[in-house]
Amino acid sequence: MSEATDRDVTTALDPERVRARAKELYDREFADLLARTPKSRVMFERARSSMPLGVASSFQAAEPYPVYLARGEGARVWDVDGTGYVDFHNGFGSMAVGHAHPKVAEAIERAARTGTHFAVTTDAAVLLAEELCRRFGLDRVRFTNSGTESTMDAIRVARAATGRDVVVKVEGAYHGHHDAVMFSVAPSLQLVTEADETGVQPPASLGIPRAAAALTTVVPFNDLGVVEDLFSRRGQDIACFILEPVMMNIGIVLPRPGYLEGLRRLCSEHGIVLIFDEVKTGVTIAAGGATERFGLQADLVCLAKSIGGGVPIGAFGGRAELMDLIGNGVAQQGTFNGNALAAAAGLAALTEVLTPDAYLHLGHLGKRLAGGCEAPIRQSGLAAHVVDLGCKGCVSYRAEPLVDYRSFLETDAQLFEASWVWLLNRGIFMTPGNEEQWTLSVQHEDSHIDLFVEAFGEFCQTLAG
Q1: Residues recognised as catalytic
Q2: Is the pTM of this model over 0.90?
Q3: Third-level CATH fold of 3-100+356-464
């Protein structure tokens, strides 16, 4: 199809008709989903008597009930009803190694037989720390058990180093659920108004003191001018600026050219600690995450998810003068930090599975998937775009690429919901939520990608037809 024809098709589509068609498809497909997941319904009825919302984490909740999984192997998962899917969810980005990878499974089995936990540092923890330092250009690393703990501890170190209290974060960004970062979190749709120059927000959860809002200031992503103005007015109060260098809780938002470099310069000029939250980007979009991909060194880097090969682990690290405050007045501890099981799994994942060849494979798969989704979008004329970052990628239902949270609000969630249930009913397990993205694993193959592309192409054609 020619470029001129592509433009003609795009212009001819009636957005309201497309949305009406999306609702029809969603209603039909969702009824089919409920009909084929009776055991998930039974599991939900049982689970909600012992767990709020019937799930282990609120992100897993769904109406009227979520799909419950029973097992995973390679690039596939099976639900409690026995239905198999190719997994593009991959544990919200934690499973770049895929499920039950033999090398990771062997490391876990070995740890299970020789001791999973001692509350004493093991050689595997030291080796894993060295590997993280190598990949991300860090002087020192400390382990945690989650991304939330990693960002919480990094902010504490930054406050101690600067003697300041205020945290700057990006509008709509998620950095875990501790109090300092639970303001302006997507998809709460809370916006900083022009009249509110301080960026003060109500907390995104009950149980957080409203007074905490005075210590957290919000700025839009990709806007250096706002940051420069804020720093010039309040730089003496600001301890740190924490951000995802690629924003990944509203689809995928790439930094504009010069944006990260400008932040690095401004933070250095004002003595503000620059923190990269690489919980999602770390070891996925490159071996050294966004730090490697963009060639820019933050003062502190926060990690979790795929660094553990599927076992709960987190880490944060950075410059020696910052990290060495730990033990010199800064408290950072945890009984399970760097435990033998997590260290063994993480070390196997990073040194034996996520190798240079693995990243070539992920790059090939990502390009194949993104290109395969882009073609039917153009041919059908849907208002959508595709982002490819190798292991990570997404389709966002807005014609132009996203630049910040407010542009994310222009995406069509109804089109996403229709696509999600359509794909699920055709054997594609995807993250439920317009704000999420796919994660590929080293155990995905071309045939898995082609299954996704075929189902997505049929969706675009049906929606536009």
Answers
A1: 174, 277, 305
A2: yes
A3: Aspartate Aminotransferase, domain 1 (3.90.1150)
